[in-house]
Design a protein that fits this description.
Belongs to the UDP-glycosyltransferase family. The protein has 223 residues and is of the alpha/beta class. It has a domain at 1-124: Glycogen Phosphorylase B (Rossmann fold), CATH 3.40.50.2000. 39% of the residues lie in helices and 12% in strands. The chain has a five-stranded parallel beta sheet with strand order 2-1-3-4-7. Strands 5-6 form a two-stranded antiparallel sheet. Helix 6 (127-139) crosses helix 8 (207-215). The two termini are 18 Å apart.
């Protein structure tokens, strides 16, 4: 998409509705804005007060969690797919130059494509947790232990990390694939069709995991 030299670049930022996602999204939106980009954050009414406050100050306090149990979290994740028509309507009305959407919104890539704009995936957690979660989903070492308290090692990883199934409840249902696991897989697959990724980190902070993400897991290069 070509942008006229006199036209201000306008980017939409669409975080997942949780404090751990909202705060880094606010930071990255403000960073782009400091370089002259018109930055617009999309959120739900419940989260709007946090965004309004953070627009004036750099720090902000966490609000109450919307989902506190695994069952409620799964319902919450399923409900996020209902946002697709609203996001499509917003993009149609405002026609930004780019959509930066949370990695938990795999459908955002297709929505952006309808309007011919690039979709960037934002990972607010850095490379280390992204590598760890994707490796666990890929190799499923938690299924090789006998109990929830037995330790397993994350395989093919730059450092030795031991965990138990109790630490990854949302990924370790025994009988069926959880909504979280499906979401992680869809997000990973959609990365190949997205314009690129933005990761909340810098290479000097975690070089081993940045390289592991690109070279071993085959992830797209970060921005």
């Amino acid at each position: 998409m070509e942008i006229e030299s006199h036209q201000q670049l306008h980017m939409f930022f669409f975080p997942f509705m949780a404090q751990g996602h909202n705060i880094p999204f606010i930071d990255i939106a403000k960073l782009f804005a400091s370089h002259g980009v018109k930055s617009t954050l999309i959120t739900t009414p419940v989260n709007a007060p946090l965004f309004s406050k953070a627009a004036k100050i750099w720090g902000c306090e966490s609000s109450s969690n919307l989902a506190t149990t695994i069952e409620m979290k799964e319902k919450f994740f399923k409900a996020t797919f209902l946002l697709e028509p609203q996001i499509e309507q917003i993009l149609d009305q405002h026609r930004p130059h780019c959509l930066v959407a949370d990695s938990f919104f795999p459908w955002a890539t297709d929505v952006a494509a309808k309007f011919g704009i690039p979709r960037l995936i934002f990972h607010g957690t850095g490379f280390f947790p992204s590598c760890a979660s994707q490796t666990v989903i890929l190799h499923q070492p938690h299924k090789q232990v006998e109990s929830d308290s037995e330790l397993f090692t994350i395989p093919n990883f730059p450092v030795e990390i031991k965990m138990t199934r109790t630490q990854i409840r949302s990924l370790s249902e025994k009988n069926s694939e959880s909504i979280m696991t499906k979401l992680f897989k869809e997000s990973r697959e959609i990365e190949e069709r997205s314009y690129g990724i933005i990761v909340n980190t810098f290479h000097e902070l975690e070089p081993d995991f940045a390289d592991h993400y690109r070279n071993v897991l085959g992830g797209r290069h970060g921005i």
